[in-house]
Amino acid sequence: MGLVALPLARALGQLGTIHGRVIDDGTGRPLSDAVVQTDGTPSIARSASDGSFMLRAVPNGAQVVVARRIGFAPARRAVFVQPNDTVFAELRLNELALTLAAVTVHPVLPAFDAFQNSVAPGALTLPAHALRDAPAAVEPDVLRAVGSLPGVVTRSDNKTGFSAQGGEEDQNLTLLDGIPMFSPDHFGGLFGTFIPAAVDQIRLQEAGFPARYGGRMSSVLDVTSAEDTRPGTHGTANLSLLSSNVTLGGAIDRARGSWNVALRRTYADALERTFTKHALPYHFLDGQAHLSYETPSHLRIAATVFHGLDVLDASMAQLGDSTASAAARLLYERGNDLAGLSLAAPVSTGHGGIAGDSVVVTQSASISRFASTYDQGAGSMRFESGVRDARLAGSLARHGASHGVRAGYDIDAYRVHDRLGSTQTATDETFSDRTLAALALYAEDEWHATSKLVVQPGARFEQVSGTGWASFSPRLSMKYFFTPSFATTVAAGRYAQWLQLSTDETATMQLFDYWVPSDRDIPVAVARHFVVEAERWFGDRRFVSVQGYYKPYSGLNAENQSADLHVPESAFLHETGTAYGATLLVRQEEMRGVAGSLSYTYGLSTRRHADTSFFPLQDRRHTLNALATLRSKRGVLGVAFSYGTGTPYTRSVGEVQARSYDPTSGAWLPADQLNVQGPYNGNRYPPYSRLDLSLSREYRHKDVRITPSLSVVNVLNRRNVFRYFSHYAVEPPTRTALTQFPILPTIAVKVEF
Amino acid sequence: MKHSLRLGILLLCGACETPSEPIPPGTESVQVSAILNPALADQVVLVERAHVGRASVDTLSSFDPTEPITTGLGLPISGARVVIARPGRDSVVLVEDLAARGFGAGVYRFSNPLVAGGTSAATLEVRPGEQYTLRVTTPTGMRVAGETTVPLATPVDVPARAIDTLDRSGAPLRLHWHREPTAGDYALIVASPRAPYVTMVPDTELVLSGSLRNANENLEPVFTPGFRQAVTVVATDRNYYDSFRPQRSSSANSRTHLEGGYGVFGSIVPVVACVVAVTAPAQAAPAGTWLLRDSSAKAGLPRTVRLYVDDQQATGTTLSGNYGDADGQPWRGVLGESHGDSISLSLLANWTARDTVTRLTAVIRGSLLEATDRGTGTHGTYVREP
Fold first, then answer.
1. Chains A and B: how many Cβ contacts under 8 Å?
2. Which of A156, A266, A510, A659 to mutate to test the interface with B (most CBs of B within 10 A)?
């Protein structure tokens, strides 16, 4: 009846909003993740971390609001909804003491929630279980899970960094609890830096993101720390062949807050040393801590700290170089550090002067740093590079019946330093230490113009010191519901970036992350997004979405491989470019133990510098990803298949034997061999495909769950090419290929308590 | 270093290498190596084929300075027409060594009459500040062209006659020179037994530590104890600079200013030249001065061998030094390795590792060194000088 009445009520403009809060009746604490809906209507919402929820487009008249949450008895409350008004409802849930058997929980899924309530085109959310259940390459990885999403291209198995809808890796704004992170992966990009057990969910928006986000011009990857609100201390331990990680957490002060600490370290170095004479002189370490607390006056405090470090500490001989000096010790370190504190306080609950409105003031301070050091040993060469962002940010958000207005600011103070030199000679020393500041002011509104149309206009003003650059970036998203289950979204916006990663467009793998700030010679890069999306849901667990995008770029900076180190202005090539394409996603959230998705992406990216037009490394024309998870009492089976057409590379078409000249005799001596390169990124690697399987089964003993798992990566042992090495000094010439992951079975055990 | 990185990638990524497979050969192209140097009498131009898989390179022969291409991992082009000209003035057609001397395929030569001692009948003055063009036409019709302007600087005599001493553990070597207003960039070149050390110098002074290592050559020490090494600073033109300056890329494409080929046609003018006799502490064997016992003197074994520890490597200790005879012959270089009491030594014809003349194996017994010539089997006993 409600489903029939809704379109009529919409047509007549007889809709209202229910705004409210879900509370644990026993403790008085707000309850997050409770499913809230009105009987007989499709309006459904999930309570936020402060317990608040909002049901929009509710037909007027008497309604019954129901809140449900695992472990609690459902609570109901009758309200009377007025047209174009907001009514407040507080629902208090009582914890269940014994059994859940009588409770049927039908949680609203993040994707469906986003479809109903978000204007963001192409925003995709992966909850923690999806990260864990996907087949893992050695071990679960947050960034690898992103790689299977539509519109996302990863260059190889050996790279967790990703390209979102044609953009470069450094154009993704990666946030951990709202704090920017510069290079969220480990050495060579093999692993992401996030510890899966410490992550609650990730949300990726690949284009058309709103005005509150700035500083990057391709996508936003929002990673949220897990918050364990169960009483006592709980934990998860994961042991794999490569690493171990431990996560501990629990509630504090009668669930007013939570704490969470996670540590991960690889130990392939120790294993190698134990069982063989060899030593793999490499390990990485990640540590993450998150604390949240809400005071009785509803001031919410959250703090996050992260530390990651890669260490490669070896003699040249350990790396197989028999000619190098044993005294020469190679040291390579890199890592992210960040810390942040945020405060959020409601200044109006909606009971007071402005009916139905809630106003929240948020203020945060954070510091984020990425540094890398490469020391070739014996004082011959040392390279240091670092970037630091000290940030203050704040916002004022007001949620009303038809408007959700937010205004805020970001102030970023950056320091970027690098040093290249040799302690033995002053001949090649270069050093720079630059600071710059960026100020951003923004405002956006989520306006429910009609029952069918939601408009999100926004604008961002940004100014960057030392560049002479200031700009106004308008953004607009509009979502139109043809029916409650079918909507289309269009979005457009302008996005700027003043810190870019120096990238080698001819390299398959980049060992160093070297961030470069804009100045008067290096322009601020700008992208414009134009996105259109159509999304159709079949129930609340299956949907199909189709998206098209077009993104022109200017001011991109690529590393000049023939740059003169003594001429700083020659370091970069200034590029322009475009990216356009389309994605198709068919997804089923878990139903009767079966979940899966099928995504296809067509993308075309081009870049141009000087007179050269070329395809960037991430230009994979066709990408197909299929994922399936089958859950039964016996365990969980995960299957993942990926197919992609080849990515570009610059082919070697010959070699020359370089010669060194003796100025005292005029003699020429043989020196290194140099490659003769063909057209710039003018060739493509063969198509890529990979089939992965994983199997896990959970065993319970009292409060302890033990889940052993087996993953097999590249089951078909497909030899996907990572890089070619050509040899032209022989007849006939030959080529060898370095391949990506071979068939790689791994076992792991997870213990949860 | 590249080898290390490749191995590192393999280790860290779990990657595999596929068996080699044949690929189509590339397009024939020409490589030219030509530097004009007004301090020298003979000016040499090498003309060779780029490696494109249409012929195999000789990797077995040891380097012979008279056949720098054939024995230097190259494929010479004989019979080319190589012309260097001063536009609007004069020109010279270079003569291939193979035609003039019967050896030296792909080596083309002319003499600069402004410096005495030229060996070629073809002559052209090489003067600082003047512009030159190069035209190469191969027998198959491929053409390469380039031009250079010799830096306007006053050349010093090379090789230098004065010899300075550099103790590797002592004070550094200090060099300075005057900037010539019209000169381009500067380069430091240190002749080392294995590979020259080349670096670009933005200033007009240098401080070189005796412990300097060559980052481009597996971190080997630049200064080798017991050796005499030429240290030269040259003013360079843009072509030389771009060809030899450090670049991230290992591509030949970005290093050349030639039309129709790869390589360099550049020019330099030496502005500082010296020869350093490198020494190092020699406190314990195998370092030290070893004298052949008169009673055991044998043909082919040098009378005196001075040895130093050059470097500590993963596989053992590398040695360097020099050797000489009492009959007034010049001292020459020695390179070697020691593993415990066992030593292997290469006696060099001069100061480069490419011209080994004799190999010795030896065992240290207290203050004695029992040496055997691996070629002739000649045995001798050396005594360490106190």
1. 309
2. A659
List the one residue out of A389, A345, A380, A344 whose CA is nearest residue A364. A344
Query: Which residues have a Cβ under 8 Å from the Cβ of B16 and sit 6 or more positions away?
Result: A719, A738, A739, A742
Element of type H or E holding B239: helix B238-244
Whether chain B has a CB inside 8 Å of the CB on A689: the answer is no
- Contact status, residue A388 vs residue A336, Cβ threshold 8 Å: no
Can you tell me which residue has the tokens 């010799």?
B150
Length reported for chain B: 386
Q: What are A733-753's pLDDT values in tens digits? A: 999 998 888 888 888 898 988
Which helix (H) or strand (E) segment is A113 a member of?
A: helix A110-117
Quickly list DSSP for A602-627. Answer: EEEEEEEETTEEE--TT--SEEEEEE
Taking the C-alpha atoms of residue A195 and residue A244, their distance in angstroms, rounded to an integer, is 10
Residue that has been written with the tokens 């050559």 in this structure: B217
Residue bearing tokens 């290929």: A737
How far is A419 from A438, CA to CA, in rounded Å? 24
Distance of alpha carbon B108 from alpha carbon B93, whole angstroms: 9
Rounded to the nearest angstrom, the minimum Cα separation between A665 and chain B is 7
Contacts of B19 in chain A (CB under 8 A): 736
Structure tokens at A294: 């809400």
Using the 8-state DSSP alphabet, how is residue B101 labeled?
Answer: H
Could you give the 3-state DSSP secondary structure of residue B325? coil
Cα separation, A136 vs A149, whole angstroms? 15
Q: What is the pLDDT of residues A337-354, one digit of tens each?
A: 999 999 999 886 544 444
> How far is A312 from A187, CA to CA, in rounded Å?
9
Of B3, B232, B247, the CB nearest to A321: B3
Report whether B206 contacts B174 (CB < 8 A).
yes
* Interchain proximity A735–B212, CB inside 8 Å: no
Residue in chain B nearest A266 by alpha carbon: B12
Given this model, what pLDDT does residue B47 score?
A: 98
Copy the structure tokens of residue A362. 């948020």
Q: What is the DSSP pairing of strand A358-375 with strand B342-348?
A: unpaired
Provide the ipTM. Answer: 0.91
Entry field: residues in chain A: 753
Closest Cα in chain A, distance from residue B169 (Å): 13
Start-end of H helices in A212-320: 268-275
CB atoms within 10 A of CB B347: 21
Can the peptide bond before residue B159 be classed as cis, meaning omega within 30 degrees of 0?
yes
| B238 membership: H or E segment, kind and range | helix B238-244
Whether residue B13 and residue A158 make contact (CB cut-off 8 A), yes or no, is yes
Which residues, other chains included, contact B89 with Cβ-Cβ below 8 Å and sequence gap of 6+? Answer: none
Tens digit of each residue's pLDDT (9 = 90 or more) over A386-413:
999 999 999 999 887 788 899 999 999 9
